[in-house]
């Protein structure tokens, strides 16, 4: 039908009489998204709320999967239609309402997440100030901290790490949790650091199944980074260090483990792939590095902090950082006004 076809006004519906053909312009029905409309939107198309209610009664041509939201057919709703209905019912300003949890993971392409059609409820993330209660297929998830939504199949969707945290928090099956977290990292949906950050924020790292999976994934993530560090040192022509060693003072305290150590120059490199401590507490990667740098600095050792992303995306730049430290020009290890002291003898042990 041409968009220029005039829309013939319909006659009011008389109770008890058959419903006439729906008056919604057919162009609206060409797109599946347009088959989900609110009562207010239908009214703008000339359909009175009373007629909408009549059409949504049992046995009618339409249905109302959410309060005030109509599905313009009588068949079984698809997962996408239910999700659209949940979002239409939730409303809210752009960027303040988004899909999260398992529904979001399905839209992100997770093979270990159930498809939308298999979900009884869709998690919808909203600001904590919204006064909404979970209704029908919409389960409301409130938060003080809303991420920036991404678009997946036309839907506003929480980033993978946030969607995972919301999904894991509502998934009691340890095997399902393990599958979701493993796919997230191994299939490249998100990095370990972002994942740990969101799990920590949701206070989920204290759960034994979650922590066990995270520890395995973090260990897996370190191996490629360690290989890149070795290639970086050799490609840059830097002296060969001791690899993967523990440092301690003679008959003194343990100073910690490092990924590379040059004893003559008193320089150590640590790859930090955690971003947050594995215990789920307030300790994060920055605090860990600051404490370790201070401890090694008091023993006269300069600590260079690298991350897997640095080694992957800016290897040449990081090689120069390590070179500067070996030449005594590195500014990150302290100085006369910091914790650094002249080097003392330390014991180097393999890890």
UniProtKB/TrEMBL annotation:
Residues 1-26 are annotated as: Disordered. Residues 1-14 have a biased composition (Low complexity). It comes from the Bacteria. Residues 15-24 have a biased composition (Pro residues). This is Transcriptional regulator, AbiEi antitoxin, Type IV TA system.
């Amino acid at each position: 039908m041409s968009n220029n076809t005039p829309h013939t006004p319909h006659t009011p519906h008389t109770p008890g009489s058959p419903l006439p053909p729906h008056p919604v312009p057919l162009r609206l029905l060409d797109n599946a998204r347009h088959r989900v409309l609110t009562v207010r939107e239908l009214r703008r198309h000339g359909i009175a709320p009373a007629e909408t209610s009549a059409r949504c009664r049992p046995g009618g041509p339409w249905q109302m999967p959410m309060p005030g939201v109509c599905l313009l057919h009588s068949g079984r709703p698809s997962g996408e239609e239910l999700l659209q209905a949940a979002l239409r019912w939730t409303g809210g300003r752009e960027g303040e309402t988004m899909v999260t949890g398992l529904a979001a993971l399905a839209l992100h392409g997770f093979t270990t997440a159930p498809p939308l059609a298999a979900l009884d409820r869709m998690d919808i993330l909203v600001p904590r100030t919204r006064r909404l209660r979970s209704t029908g297929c919409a389960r409301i998830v409130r938060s003080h901290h809303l991420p920036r939504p991404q678009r997946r199949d036309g839907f506003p969707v929480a980033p993978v790490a946030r969607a995972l945290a919301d999904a894991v928090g509502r998934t009691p099956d340890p095997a399902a949790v393990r599958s979701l977290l493993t796919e997230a990292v191994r299939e490249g949906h998100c990095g370990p650091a972002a994942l740990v950050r969101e799990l920590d924020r949701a206070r989920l790292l204290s759960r034994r199944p979650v922590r066990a999976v995270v520890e395995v994934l973090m260990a897996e993530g370190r191996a490629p980074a360690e290989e890149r560090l070795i290639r970086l040192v050799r490609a840059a022509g830097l002296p060969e260090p001791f690899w993967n060693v523990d440092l301690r003072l003679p008959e003194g305290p343990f100073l910690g483990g490092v990924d590379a150590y040059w004893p003559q120059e008193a320089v150590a490199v640590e790859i930090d792939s955690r971003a947050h401590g594995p215990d789920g507490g307030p300790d994060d990667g920055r605090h860990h590095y600051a404490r370790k740098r201070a401890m090694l600095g008091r023993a006269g050792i300069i600590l260079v902090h690298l991350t897997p992303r640095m080694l992957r995306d800016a290897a040449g730049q990081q090689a120069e950082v390590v070179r500067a430290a070996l030449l005594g020009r590195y500014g990150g290890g302290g100085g006369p006004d910091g914790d650094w002291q002249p080097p003392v003898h330390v014991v180097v042990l393999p890890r």
